[in-house]
Amino acid sequence: MRAIGFNTSYEIDEENSLIEFKAEKPISSEFDIVVKVIAASMNPVDTKVRVNSAKDIILDDPKILGYDGIGVIESIGSKVTNFKQGDKVFYAGDVTKNGSNAQFQLIDSRIVALAPTSISDEEAVVLPLTSLTAWEAMFDRMNIDPSENKTILIIGGAGGVGSIATQIAKQTTNLTVIATASREETTKWCKDMGADHVVNHRDLVNSVNEAGFESIDYIFNVANTFIHWDSMAELIAPQGKICSIVDTEEPIDINKLKAKSVTFIWEFMFTRAMFNTKDIQKQSDILAEITSLVDQSKIKSTLSKTFNGFSVENFKAAHKLSESGKAVGKTAIIF
Question: What positions does the domain Enoyl reductase (ER) occupy (predicted)?
């Protein structure tokens, strides 16, 4: 099969930062399925893995990126009971295994779900990773009660995760959603996603206060943990909860949270797949919920850019856009 990946870490402008190569078509067994991939989407994790995982070495087998996929099941393993050949599914994959930037992909059936039928493949493929991240952060990590009338601050509201987190919070909870943005374009995007208030992350504390809030019950940071740490510590309510998905580049003073008895927790969407946790099936269940919400027109795709064609050039362009820091919403690559 054709695949696109890398065998050493380069900046994206380097000629061999991404390469096309031939790979063996995978074979399904046990809980695994083989999917004929229709489309993939771009996530920051793609660029991070490309830049960091093969520094100063050459991999024996090129690494295939891609942590969102949609496609048709070609074969199923002996322990797969909830899908059949020909089903169209979508998923976010496993960062430790080869991804969706290939004609075929092997993936655990317990982390996939039937794809939405009311939207296009490119609109659907941008949803799994961000939706799982947002859902797990809010309901598995921060244990938000959907019925409570509290506040959530989403730092990085116009990105892929922030965009879908806003929608999920508005459609499935009673939370007041405050999202951050700093440009006219991103502010409009956050409002379009359903945010009740949009504040400026460049002056976060004052901006939140000016919006009428002295403190916040839940903070979901999808932008930068270190830069916003002091602001989060100041804004979080006593006994509040902070969840982040972004590694901190420098040490942070967690003592700032002690007096308020604040909970700080990480969300890493790949945990269940990486460690084959006992509740790995939960990711399939969450994605099924997302499909239902989409097909009921309660949440919409966060797609903002599409590249057409399975080519190194298109994947490089998607990586460049992601690394620019100016991407709004999500990017899809249709094969």
Answer: 17-333
